Amino acid sequence: MHKEKKLENTGRELHESTTCTTTLKFNRKIIGAVWNENDAQWNLSVENLENRKKFDEQFDVVITAIGRFNAWKLPDYPGIGDYKGHLRHSSNWDPNFDPTGKTVAVIGNGASGLQVVPNLQKVAKHLDHYARSKTWIAGSLVLLKSFEDPDTYHKFRKDLEGKFFQRFSTLFKGTEENKKLEEDFRKLMAERLKKKPELLDEIVPDFAPNCRRLTPGPGYLEALTEDNVSFIRTPIEKFTEQGIVTTDGVERKVDAIICSTGANIDMRPPFPITAFGQDLRDAWSPDPLTYLGVASPSFPNLVFVSGPNAHGTSGTVPNQTETQITYIAKLLRKVSQQSIKTFVPQKQQQMISSLIVTRSSQERYGQAIANPGEILVDQEEESMATGLEVHHMLIS
């Protein structure tokens, strides 16, 4: 929790050091947004969560920066409402919960599960880790003392980026580079699991690396080899008042259950955004369509931060988000300087008819994608074309 507090304090310091203190409004919930064509403005319906009063406000431009994984949800296992112990989603962590000396179950081995498990293992009496799918675990970067020198860290970053851009061939199924990567990862994982080598085949998947976003998971594999951890691949059948029953009939009683089971990631906004009689949620069904992940056709003066298709299959998300924000800043500067009333992308500007790589038949952020690692043409949803990340950065 000390890291969380440090991040919170950093945010507060940044907030207090800028003029944002006079413009930010907290405890406000957006109920809906409607485009007024005559005035060329967005009408936002807002609820004050402190007094429950509702009101409308008008804006020339709306930027949605509501995040990608903030709509967490608990799994819908039978009997989950009957469980009497401590039940939480990892994205809705209770700061007052002390796992020390308790029996704990963690469901899920995605990015969140890989972070939660090693931290709980250190203090829990026993930890049951339920993993439905196998996954690749990448190597971890050690935080070197030398990184405190800016020049050393800058050189490290440049070298790392160079290696990243040179490894595009590893994204293709069946290439020698991808096979070599799979071999290296398997050796690395075997070394980290040497205390319990029987776990290797339970964890290593049958799909190639890069089909899902790679997760280093520092300490995760090591935690699984400890005596107070049970790694469980048997599917969950139901919850009981005291724990979890798997499909083999075994009930495991625990004091607490932490669900690292993902979030609602269909990318559609949690409130209606309507322009010209069309709701954005309907326009993005079955799949969202955007230009560079920052704007969508038929919805003027509306831009997104970390919107659909804004991030590639790998790479640093903060850098990609900064690129989007820079693009939006340049766009708004042009709008202001040239007195542009409305702006909206044309649909043909969104299409990329070139080399595209899909990710995996395994679930990626909860969404099933067919044909793992194959090359497709004219794939519109969440594309990853040759040089796309660089192109995204250059044009913004």
TrEMBL record:
Transmembrane segments: none annotated. The lineage of its organism: Eukaryota, Fungi, Dikarya, Ascomycota, Pezizomycotina. Keywords: FAD, Flavoprotein, Oxidoreductase. InterPro entries: FAD-bind_Monooxygenase_sf (IPR051209), FAD/NAD-bd_sf (IPR036188), Flavin_mOase-like (IPR020946). This is FAD/NAD(P)-binding domain-containing protein. GO terms for molecular function: flavin adenine dinucleotide binding; N,N-dimethylaniline monooxygenase activity; NADP binding. The keyword RNA-binding does not apply. It comes from Monilinia fructigena. Coiled coil: none annotated. Belongs to the FAD-binding monooxygenase family.
